[in-house]
């Protein structure tokens, strides 16, 4: 029978189990390596998660910036179109007003001409009588 060494507390692991048995040499020779590998793997996973989180934050910020830029452009375009529409409407209203004034003047001139013609005709008729 092979003699075993009593292990002293290995990285906080109790060498005496619940049943009172001791850990024997050769049972878990790769324990230290496995724990080291698990810690390294855990650190790698944490770093990867942090990289992914940072990338996601950058993408979200870029999306927000692009959305804000697009909204600003649309707002400016809308303002330009509204201003153009207002200018066209004002010009059209001014043209209509000028045309109405011109037509009113023509109407007044015709009425005056008709009045003068009627007066002339009346005056001529009175002289004939």
From TrEMBL:
Keyword Coiled coil: yes
Keywords: Cell projection, Cilium, Coiled coil, Cytoplasm, Cytoskeleton, Flagellum
Pfam families linked to this entry: RIB43A
Subcellular location: Cytoplasm, Cytoskeleton, Flagellum axoneme
Ranges annotated as biased composition (Polar residues): 118-129
Bias-annotated ranges (Basic and acidic residues): 108-117
Main location, first listed in the record: cytoplasm
Region (Disordered): 106-129
Subunit structure: Microtubule inner protein component of sperm flagellar doublet microtubules.
Family the entry assigns: Belongs to the RIB43A family.
Protein name: Uncharacterized protein
Originating species: Euplotes crassus
